[in-house]
């Protein structure tokens, strides 16, 4: 028997969820690499805050990569594990040479905006498939990311000069 037989999910509907999870996996892999670059190369007045924050973010992205890959496996798929394949489908684009905090934050915020849109679509798709576990996973991601976006926007738009 297959895992899906025990999960009581329709294979066709689960395959659609797997496709969306594969997309998100590719995007998270590229984002992880971008965050590593920001962490390594950041300079300037926000260095101490951003250096630590980018490390926290890439650790979180690595955890999400693992969760997404395992969810793909649970739903009967095989997670892509080649970076060359990620780059073919990822909507998140590679960046390099970014050392300015404002530029890095803009990229991070834009990427989280992409993730939030993708995760909302995936949540809806998983809900239609009766896949409550993927719905819960996406809900958790959304809750965390919406708060992080709010905090990053507050950090990047603060003008303390009066």
TrEMBL record:
<dbReference type="InterPro" id="IPR023188">
    <property type="entry name" value="DPS_DNA-bd_CS"/>
</dbReference>
<dbReference type="GO" id="GO:0003677">
    <property type="term" value="F:DNA binding"/>
</dbReference>
<keyword id="KW-0238">DNA-binding</keyword>
<dbReference type="InterPro" id="IPR012347">
    <property type="entry name" value="Ferritin-like"/>
</dbReference>
<dbReference type="Pfam" id="PF00210">
    <property type="entry name" value="Ferritin"/>
</dbReference>
<comment type="similarity">
    <text>Belongs to the Dps family.</text>
</comment>
<feature type="domain" description="Ferritin/DPS">
    <location>
        <begin position="19"/>
        <end position="155"/>
    </location>
</feature>
<dbReference type="InterPro" id="IPR008331">
    <property type="entry name" value="Ferritin_DPS_dom"/>
</dbReference>
<protein>
    <submittedName>
        <fullName>Starvation-inducible DNA-binding protein</fullName>
    </submittedName>
</protein>
<dbReference type="InterPro" id="IPR002177">
    <property type="entry name" value="DPS_DNA-bd"/>
</dbReference>
<dbReference type="InterPro" id="IPR009078">
    <property type="entry name" value="Ferritin-like_SF"/>
</dbReference>
């Amino acid at each position: 028997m297959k895992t899906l037989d025990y999960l009581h999910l329709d294979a066709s509907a689960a395959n659609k969820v797997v496709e969306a999870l594969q997309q998100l996996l590719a995007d998270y892999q590229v984002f992880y690499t971008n965050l590593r670059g920001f962490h390594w190369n950041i300079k300037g007045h926000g260095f101490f805050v951003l250096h630590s924050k980018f490390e926290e973010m890439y650790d979180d992205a690595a955890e999400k990569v693992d969760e997404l890959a395992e969810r793909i496996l649970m739903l009967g798929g095989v997670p892509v594990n080649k970076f060359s394949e990620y780059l073919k489908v990822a909507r998140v684009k590679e960046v390099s040479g970014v050392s300015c905090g404002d530029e890095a934050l803009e990229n991070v915020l834009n990427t989280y905006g992409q993730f939030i849109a993708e995760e909302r679509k995936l949540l809806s798709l998983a809900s239609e498939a009766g896949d409550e576990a993927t719905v819960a996973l996406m809900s958790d991601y959304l809750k965390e990311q919406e708060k992080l976006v709010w905090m990053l926007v507050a950090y990047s738009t603060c003008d303390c000069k009066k």
